[in-house]
Structures are given as C-alpha cells and as structure tokens.
Design a protein that fits this description.
glycerate kinase, domain 1; alpha/beta; 6-stranded parallel sheet; Rossmann fold; 18 helices
C-alpha cells in the first residue's frame, strides 16, 4: 500500500475502535432479575423501579441501540437528540448495528443541522427536560453523552431566544474561540447545561456514560456538562465575551440573564445523586492507530491527545517535526540544522501551551533513528481557525493544506536533508466524519500536491486567506485528497497521522 493508503487505514482503524456500540457493551451490563443492578465499569446501581434513558450527541444513536439491547424490558422510555440525517446516512451505509430496532422504546429526534442549534434540537431538549422533571427517587436515569451534544441540547434560559444564543455562538466561533470557551458561554445561558439536567432529574439516580470529545476529558465541558457540577461562574463567561470584544454587543435578554446569574457555581454536594463515567476518548483511538501502524512496520509514536491552538501555529509545529525526521533520515539530525529545528520546536511548544506535551522527551526518542524503518507520528485534539474569508472548509482541511504548503517551502530551500529527501503524507480528520459545512472529514496533503497546484497556476496562499481549503482539495482528481467517510456515528475530536519514510538517495 502507498503512504496515502496507510494513512487512511490508520485513521479508519482509530475511528473503528471508538465506535459507540462496542465501547458501551464493554462498559455496561445488567445483572439480576428480582433485584436488577446496572453495572458500569464495576460500579453497581440498583434498578429500584423504572429505568429511563436520554441522550444527545453524534455518537448517541449507536450508544442507545446498544443500551436498549442490554437493558431489555427494564427500559421504560427513552428520548435521544441526534444530528440531522444520521439515521438515513447510517442506513445507507449499511451500519444497522447503530440503528434502533423497530418498535423501540426510545424516541429519536434529529436536529442541529451543521452542528448548530435549531428548532428541532430545541424540541428534543424540551422533551428531555420534561422527562427529567417527572422522575422520582426510585427511578434511574441513564444519560448518554457524546460530542456534538451541546448543539443538540439547546434550552436557553428565558428570556433568551434560541436565535440570539445561536448568533452569539457563531460570533465567538468566527473569532477563534476554543471549544472550551464556547461551552463555558453556552452553559451559562442554558437551562440544561452546566449541571442543569442533573438538577432537574433530582432525586432520581443519574448515571451518565460519556464519549469525550474535549481535550483532557473535563466532565463539566463535554457537551457543556449537563450532568456535572460546573467549575465556571458567570464571571468566566463575562471574561470570555470581553476577550473576543463581544461584551458591549450583547442582546438585552443575554444581559438580563448574566446580571441575574449566581456569582458562584453550585456546590458538588448538590450532585451526590449523579455518577459520570467516561467510556471512550481520543487516546483510545490513538492507541489503536499506534498498534496498527506498528503492525504495518512503522516506528510509531503518539505526540499528544491534546493538540490545540490556532492552525497556523500547529501547522508550523508539525512542519518542523517532519523536517527534523527528514534530517534524521539524511544523517543530519544531530548537526547544526537539527539543533536549529529542535530549538524552533521548543519555542513553538512554549507558544502553543499544549496540555501535557513534553516535547523535549519526545524529541529524545527521535535521536539516532536510522532510515530503515518508516516513522508514524500520531496526534489528536482540536485546533481552531480564525475566519478571515468566505470560503468553504474546516479546521482539518486547513491544517492539512498549511502543513503541505509549509513543507513545500522547506523543499525550496534546497538544503540537504530537507523534506524533499523523504516521502511524506499528512492526514487530519474529524472522527465524527465532519469538518466544517462540507461532506469531508478532513484531508490528506503532501508537499508534492502543493507543488502540483503551483505548477497549474493555483494560488495556495489565496485559498488559505479565504479559508477555502475544501475548494482547493476539490481541484484534484475528483477530490482524491479529501477525506470523505460519511457520518461515523462516533466523535472523539480530531486525529492527525504523519507518515514519513526515506527515499532513495541519488
């Protein structure tokens, strides 16, 4: 197989291991008939009377199908909010295991077109709210949460209108706000987020099964933390709005809610009836990709599961890392050029402040590498893009194109050991199968592709300035370099695959 085929295989293997049904079946069991207990990763929860289910997110349909199979007749009723069109897409793809059976006790509501709150998502949120409010102390509520859950659980605190909250979220995203910042603002303005769902369900026992799509797996941030005590106050929300220069352009309804919100988050003891359990994450996907890469003969290393920051800086980090690998293959990794690249990398590490990234230790493992084995570098997380143009694309496609352009420029230096001495492929993709308002999950790029584009008269810099990476990749061989998977039914943020191998020296 080619490097491109290897990269695609590794991405699909990573996504496959975080498919919701296998994960849920590994984590959840129901035992006993007369005195049934729900077992979740070794923790037991007695089913005293009725068992209910609610869920929201891109992976929740598959999770719910598996949960209903496990729970059987003990499940009384369920409501889940899932992305618009996901049932039809999964049906078309033949992914029957992610679909509910006929006559299911679980009601499915589709909404949140393009991962944005809409009236259908609001309808589902209201239905979930009403179910939670009717529970008693003898009931058990199983909550399924995955990435995309925040957009699928929009219930603004009155008098805020859904359109007002959506407009504010769009403005924050367009100015480069990170997912953690977006969710902090969302939950401050929401009835169900920030622990709201758990408070409404009291005194019922609440057990949440969570597929994390946020760096560091913070319970109060994933899907805006509907069943977790918030670690943020209204002051945190105000600081974020000030950071992006939005504090003086707020609708009056938002100002009203912010001015009347509690100054401190609710105390953790108010959530003694809740148990939150993470059953899947980005690292689980990366571990599987690493295992598969090693089986293909690669020396595989995981850089981080917490890559974040603006795509411009992250692309520079990856470009410098790839250049160092190529210098190593050329026998120049320990020389002045190699030391210069190492210094650049450490400077970028300080600028990006990626949680848990220990680049110095990582670079130490790259020393003394020969050229006999190809290298696979894996990473995950979620980058951000500051929108400047009106083009079409997403963070993964833009990241891939920026890496390809950066490596092409490095080739142009004509330095011995530059990336031209290596064969390189870079892949970046969203595990949910979506990257911005396109059908692509991401893209694959190489310096050769950028060189081909320039020879054909395409202005790569102009595509990037217009945030138009999708249009760029669409120019080539019927979108051959676009990563198109369709909706995957899961979501654990993004995955990057870097494959590098030495070419024959002249």
């Amino acid at each position: 197989m080619s490097l491109r085929e290897h990269a695609l295989y590794l991405f699909r293997s990573a996504v496959g291991t975080v498919r919701p049904a296998p994960m849920l079946k590994r984590a959840v069991k129901l035992q006993g008939d007369r005195c049934p207990q729900l077992l979740v990763k070794g923790q037991a929860f007695p089913v005293k009377r009725d068992l209910y289910l609610v869920g929201f997110g891109k992976a929740v349909l598959g999770m719910a199908a598996a949960a209903e199979e496990i729970l059987g007749d003990h499940l009384v009723r369920g409501i889940i909010n899932v992305p618009l069109g996901i049932q039809e897409n999964l049906q078309r793809a033949g992914m029957q295991e992610m679909l509910l059976k006929p006559h299911s006790k679980i009601q499915v509501i589709e909404g949140a077109k393009n991962n944005l709150p809409d009236p259908e998502a609001l309808k589902g949120a209201v239905a979930i709210q009403e179910l939670a409010e009717a529970l008693t102390a003898d009931d058990l509520l199983l909550v399924l949460i995955s990435g995309g859950g925040s957009a699928l659980l929009p219930a603004p605190i009155p008098p805020i209108l859904l359109q007002e909250k959506e407009k504010l979220t769009k403005m924050l995203a367009s100015r480069g706000a990170a997912i953690q910042e977006l969710n902090t603002v969302r939950k401050t303005l929401s009835l169900l987020k920030g622990g709201g769902l758990a408070r409404l369900a009291y005194p019922a026992q609440v057990v949440s099964l969570i597929l994390s799509d946020v760096i560091g797996d913070p319970l109060d941030i994933i899907a805006s933390g509907p069943t977790a005590p918030s670690s943020h106050s209204v002051q945190d929300c105000l600081q974020i709005l000030a950071k992006y220069n939005l504090l003086h352009n707020l609708p009056k309804s938002v100002e009203t809610v912010l001015s009347s919100s509690p100054s401190k988050p609710a105390a953790p003891e108010h959530y003694s009836h809740v148990c939150n359990i993470i059953i899947g994450s980005n690292m689980l996907a990366l571990d599987e990709a690493k295992h598969q890469a090693e089986s293909l003969g690669y020396r595989a290393l995981i850089l981080s599961a917490a890559v974040c920051g603006d795509v411009r800086r992250v692309s520079r980090l990856y470009c410098q890392l790839i250049q160092l690998l190529c210098l190593g293959f050329a026998g120049l990794g320990e020389g002045p050029l190699g030391e210069e690249v190492r210094a650049n990398l450490l400077q970028l590490e300080a600028e990006l402040e990626i949680p848990g990234l220990k680049l110095a230790e990582f670079l130490q493992t790259l020393r003394g590498l020969g050229s006999e084995r190809p290298i696979c570098i894996l990473a995950g997380g979620e980058t951000t893009v500051q929108l400047q143009g009106s083009g079409k694309g997403g963070r993964n496609q833009e990241l891939a194109l920026r890496v390809g352009l950066g490596l092409h420029k490095a080739q142009a230096t004509e330095v011995r050991g530059h990336p031209g001495r290596c064969e390189i492929i870079f892949l970046s993709g969203g595990t949910d199968g979506q990257d911005g308002p396109t059908e692509a999950a991401g893209a694959l790029c190489s310096p050769e592709l950028v060189n081909e584009a320039l020879q054909e008269g395409l202005d790569v810099e102009a595509f990037l300035s217009n945030n138009d990476s999708y249009t760029f990749f669409s120019q080539f061989r019927g979108g051959h370099h676009l990563l198109v998977t369709g909706l995957t039914g899961t979501n654990v943020m993004d995955i990057q695959v870097i494959l590098v191998r030495a070419t024959e020296r002249s």
